[in-house]
Amino acid sequence: MYFLWKFGVKDKLLTKYGSIDMKLDILGRAIMCEEKWNAPNNLNKARAAVMVLHNMYPGILDGKFQNACDKCQNANGGKGLFQPGQFGVWQSCMRHARHSLIRPIGNVVTSPIVEKHIAYLKDEHADYKRRV
Q1: Taking the model in full, what pTM does it have?
Q2: Percent of the chain that is helix, strand, coil (3-state, to 5)
Q3: Which of 127, 132, 116, 124 is nearest to 18 (CA)?
Q4: Tens-digit pLDDT profile for residues 117-131
């Protein structure tokens, strides 16, 4: 969402990628895009910064992104019951027998949805010309 907010057309409503639902701030106001990062290389810099931050947490936020497994979550009572920082011994499905996948893990920059966002934004700004 941050990338869309920075790259989106100025004063256009911020919406989730592939959706028409507008995003609201904590006061319930519609969020408007800023269009401050027009150059595609700014997207690469931001992506690299997020990746470095995630790599600072080895074993949790680094590596290839993996979404939570529905079967692992169901074995532990269902979706939405797991809070950040919550620890314990968890049941798992047969596929994740060594490590229950009740929460997403890995670097979010490598997730399919972020990769789609980045490709979309690069395509939107493909005709960008640097101002001299």
Answers
A1: 0.58
A2: 35, 5, 60
A3: 116
A4: 788 877 877 777 665
